[in-house]
Amino acid sequence: MIDTDPPEFLNAPLTQLDVILGESESFNQTARANPSAITYKWKREDDTEISDNTGHRIVSDGPILNITNAQKSDSGIYKIYATNDLGTSESSIRVNVQCKRKN
Q: What is the CATH number of the domain that holds 53?
């Protein structure tokens, strides 16, 4: 009998990712599964899908969420869905864009 599994995220998710206003940050939430062919989809809390179009400031690259030139409006909850033939798993992270600290 072949062992088959729906996607399972490898790491416990961060509950919050703090990003400094105007800076860039990446977050990786890789999953494992058998069969190993996994498709990933990132969405904002309002169910807006994050594009893999590099022309945007916030883009997805499989399990990686990239935020470039972070703005206060980028703050919020981001959900990732990992799917294979056996099912879908979901994880989320709260992004908190903070003002730069004064020296």
A: 2.60.40.10
SS3 of 35, please? coil
C-alpha–C-alpha distance, residues 64 and 40, integer Å: 9
Structural domain includes residue 103: no
Residue 33 domain-assigned?
Answer: yes
Does residue 7 have a cis bond before it (omega within 30 degrees)? no
pLDDT by residue for the chain (103 residues), tens only, comes to: 567 888 999 877 678 899 999 999 999 999 999 888 999 999 999 999 998 876 789 999 999 999 999 999 999 999 999 999 999 999 999 999 999 766 5
What is the Cα–Cα distance from 41 to 16, expressed in whole angstroms?
Answer: 19
